[in-house]
Amino acid sequence: MTHVIQLEGVAKRYDSAGAPALGPLDLGVAQGEALAVTGPSGSGKSTLLNLVAGLDRPTEGAVTVAGQRLEGLGEHALARFRRQHVGMVFQFFNLLDDLTVADNIQLPAQLTGTTRRRAAARAEELMELLRIQKHARAYPGRLSGGERQRVAVARALVNRPALLLADEPTGALDSASGQDVRELLADLHRGGQTLVLVTHDLALARACAGRTIHLVDGHLAVDTRAEAAR
Ligand code: ADP
After folding, report:
1. What is the overall mean pLDDT for the chain?
2. Where do the domains of the chain lie, and which CATH numbers do they carry?
3. Which of 9, 19, 31, 173 is the most buried (most CB within 10 A)?
4. Rounded to whole angstroms, how far apart are CA atoms 30 and 210?
5. Cβ(46) – ligand 1 distance below 6 Å
6. Is the CB of 175 inside a 6 Å radius of any atom of ligand 1?
7. What are the tens digits of pLDDT across the range 199-213?
8. Would you tell me how many other CB atoms lie within 10 Å of the CB of residue 114?
9. Is the pTM of this model over 0.90?
């Protein structure tokens, strides 16, 4: 089985005394799998996401994402790796308000050296897929929360990442927009996208994730797969 994420003996300490904030733990996420990460505040969810995204480094153990061991990469290579292979979606969208929707979506493609023409074509394709093409020339500030999150998902997918990470993607949305984003993520998963979702939204975990891990004090307390795997 091809694993998109492989953690081996991974632990993170922010402070050399005391227990690690995360781990040590082993975790494999297969290609096409959708994993929900739950747990109380302070249980290590963001730490896990940051390690997988290559935004932070473990104190112990090895993190391999999309076949690349991250510990060997310097800061520059890590940033390039992230742009090419990992898409990220955040609770508060993190869109650039002075760029149009289309330009927000194209930006990560241009940062990896894709020509403007190809980036624009890929953005068009995604705007159509995510049903936001009518907002292409609008600025994010004019859109609803659900629409902004669709733009953020399109931006995250522009470089066809092996892995899409989402940190509380429905956390700032009203219930109708939340449902819209749940359906969007479930559709992406059905289309084969590997997903990791940190969420308190159990409906999101149920709708999108075939597998849920629950962290308590940095440890894997529960690892369950839905009976009818998607
Ligand atoms: P969660 O996302 O589940 O709320 P975190 O991963 O943010 O949990 O935090 C896990 C633990 O690590 C907490 O005790 C938190 O206080 C600590 N922690 C997180 N980030 C840092 C940091 N940058 N410096 C020091 N301690 C941190």
Report:
1. 95
2. 3-91+158-229 (3.40.50.300)
3. 173
4. 11
5. yes
6. no
7. 999 999 999 999 999
8. 17
9. yes
Alpha carbon nearest to ligand 1 atom 13, residue: 42
Instruction: Give the integer Cα–Cα distance in Å for 26 and 18.
Output: 21
Asked whether residue 230 carries a pLDDT value surpassing 50, the answer given is no
Asked whether 14 lines ligand 1 (CB < 6 A), one says yes
212: Cβ below 6 Å to ligand 1?
Answer: no
In short, whether 19's Cβ falls inside 6 Å of ligand 1 is no
> Which residue's alpha carbon is at the smallest distance from atom 25 of ligand 1?
14
Q: How confident is the model at residue 227 (pLDDT cuts 50, 70, 90)?
A: low
Percent of the chain with pLDDT over 90: 95
Rounded to the nearest angstrom, the distance between the alpha carbon of 112 and the centre of ligand 1 is 31
Of 47, 49, 215, the one to substitute when testing ligand 1's pocket (max ligand atoms within 8 A of C-beta) is 47
